[in-house]
Amino acid sequence: MTGQEDAGSGLFDTCRFIFVITKSLPTAVAEQYENSIKSYGGEVLEADAKGKLPISQATHIISNTIDFPEYTEAEALMVPVVTMDWVKVSIQRTRQAQVRPFSPDPRMIFSSVVLTCADLPVNDKEAIIGATLALGGIESKDVARTTTHICALSLDHPKCQTALDKKLKCKIVLPHWFDDCFKLGKRIDEKPYLLPDPEILRAHPEDDLVVPSSPHLEGATSTIPSLPLAHDERGQSGRGKLTVFAKRKVLLSWDLPINNRLRNILNELVRDGGGEIVDAAEDCDMFIGQYRDGPEYVRAAQSGKDVGNLAWLYHLIVHNEWTSPFRRLLHYPVPRKGIPGFENMRITLSNYGGDARIYLENLITAAGATFTKTMKADNTHLITARKNGEKCEAAMDWNIHTINHLWIEESYAKCEVQSLTIPKYTHWPNRTNLGEVIGQTFLDEQKLHELYYPGADEDLDGASKRRRQLLDAAHENALVVGAPVPKPGRTPKAVNVMRESSPATNAPRGTQKSKAYETPARGRHIRTGKENDTPSIVSSGSRSAKAQALSKIQNMAPDIALYEKEKKRSAKDSHAPWGGKRAADQIDKERAAKASSPAHQRPESDDDEDTRRPAKKQKSSAPSVQLRLTLTGYKRWVGDKKKEDADRRKLRELGIQIVNENAPCDYLVAPKMVRTLKFLKVLARGVEILKSEFVDDILETGEVPDPEDYHLHDKEAEKRFGVTLAAAIARAKENKKSGRSLLWNIPIYCTADIKNGVDSYKTLAEANGAIFKVYRARSGTTIKPTTREEDGGAAPEPVYLLTSNSPSEKELWPRFEAMARKGNMEPRVVVSDWMLDVILRQEYFFDKKYLAKGYFPGA
């Protein structure tokens, strides 16, 4: 690290560095790196007399953490913050390394990953590498000593053998690890994914797991913790002298739940640490309060002061090191009346332990919901670290929303209830307890500003207004994951008015600051006529759905949970920039298009520089969509992904879009009448069905013929299934027109062990309006016992149980029948063919031939 050999190389010429001294980067280590930087032509800046770092004059900030007061200013001014490893690697390579992979921001979950891929399909490889780069990782073409991870399906690949032969310390992981990390937006432990014997492939998901510790929750499990220090009457302690309050003015709010003795102790601690206690929000640097209301809180927050609660103050005292109150959810004042939308929720927990459980209990209460230690039928939500256990099974039986802790954390961070359909909230890696990634969600300061202390910026003094501008600019310039990179399609927030004059502003080696561095309460559906005071047949009010990501890299952070869809996309399908040169090119294209458009032509005298910019050649856009098709059983593309991609592009150029079965479509295309999930689901919407030759002829001729000439006719299948396809479509259209579904309000149970799995039957039943429930050995009574007299003399209504012929399922039949009869209902234990035929015909009927006892021999 001395750099003597290349002392005159000028590696860091025009670079001006600031070192942030913390426990992870002590003074002695920093001095060694400072000497190396100076020997390579760099300059090291020092803090001013007040201890403030001159961020606006720097080109690089060296810090192993983002926990320093000026980090927001660095984000606003787009000064890259990198770890000390960046200096080391730059010197080793004799060129400045990229800054993004060395970000200390914990939201850049792969900042320490050097990845190479082995035996993966091309599309999967590109998607994994692209997303890893977007989250701070580095790609290595070959295996080297610096490689930390090899992504492979087996150890047979030469890269894996090289790593084993040379005994490199890199980890060989399945792609499933990256997949699960992308879905969650968090980095989980690699151990269950390590080759040659990955636990996720040999262990059962329900096998026991050790409840992990939660290091990110230290000192942040409660908003009102006990003071973790022993003091005498003068507030002294045996701990070393505090420095975290040096030259800071602190205001302790009137709403803090502390007595006068404790307030005096805290006052003494601040003064002994070089700080000052003040009484006005305008005078303070740090505001300590309990609630997000009151004139003092509003004024301090509007001014950009550090606003935290007692838990944050105690954390500063214990660790004697500054940290942002936005870093941990329970370090910030709580909303007095909770978050709107949580007031009617009753939430319980499962599979969390220790600090994680205490933290979630307090977070649920702070959000305004009711926490219950045990789960009952009136619970609305179950938050679980794993998708197994008695509570999870009961939640499925009672249709209680089941999610992981990311839902409650992000709802609290964004100050509004998040949709339960976001996939990452319902994702549980098989051999991971999600308690290991709890407490990593940051508060959204912009949302807090909008809801709790809006406006009034124009009334602030100069210093407060600048702090407010810095916060806003930092929000504009930062990606969701926190890296200081401008968002696509726009330039960074302008804060040049706040910068001091500095040679760094004109630095020739990519250090200009304008450059983008690479750096609801739930609804229950109850059977008509039954009381609602005990659990009855219910249907979930939310559906998980996958959305398409825009590209492999663009928006990978905000759409991280959609990675499984993304990895199937072609790079050519992406039309959006992700920052840097492509972002600038996109702006140029948009401006050129606007300038060249007749509707936006401006007079020749207009001096705006955008009108003088030469218009770039525009990419021809695809024509508007004329037809939307859903395909099922289409064999042309089987085993040939390249041909499929090429054909899909050709169809799109002709105005035809291929959509999935959940999207609106004009026609369903199939080779014959089949009882596939796609076929039956789209049929229920009354969509006309075309034969596969329709698509074949379009691709062969390049022209779109009349769809009316391609209606599907399958006499053989119609005879076999006892249905006329045209009649079924007509009935489906009539149902849709009348606003009623085929199986509306009809209760259908399904055994958990049914052949081919529960999910497809659930999808079909609910698509046709049925009330669907899974029936298990521990389901208990889910139909309220009642008599015919209590039902007003009504005849028993039918209730169905879909089943196959396994011994475990047969054991459930008598229990189901007894339960139904006690509820004045007629039990019908049927094979799945009954529901499939009903949906295929689009006609509700019943025949005893579908009863399981007669259908299965010896049943």
Automatic annotation (TrEMBL):
PANTHER family per UniProt: REGULATOR OF TY1 TRANSPOSITION PROTEIN 107 (PTHR47667)
Compositionally skewed regions (Polar residues) per UniProt: 502-514, 534-545
Disordered: annotated span: 213-235, 485-550, 565-625
PROSITE patterns attached to this UniProt entry: BRCT
Gene Ontology biological process terms in this record: DNA double-strand break attachment to nuclear envelope; double-strand break repair
Native source species: Coniochaeta ligniaria NRRL 30616
Gene Ontology CC entries for this record: Cul8-RING ubiquitin ligase complex; nucleus
Listed name of the protein: BRCT domain-containing protein
BRCT domain residues: 7-104, 105-195, 342-414, 627-712
Top-level lineage group: Eukaryota
Pfam families tied to this protein: BRCT (PF00533), PTCB-BRCT (PF12738), RTT107_BRCT_5 (PF16770)
Listed Basic and acidic residues bias regions: 565-575, 582-593
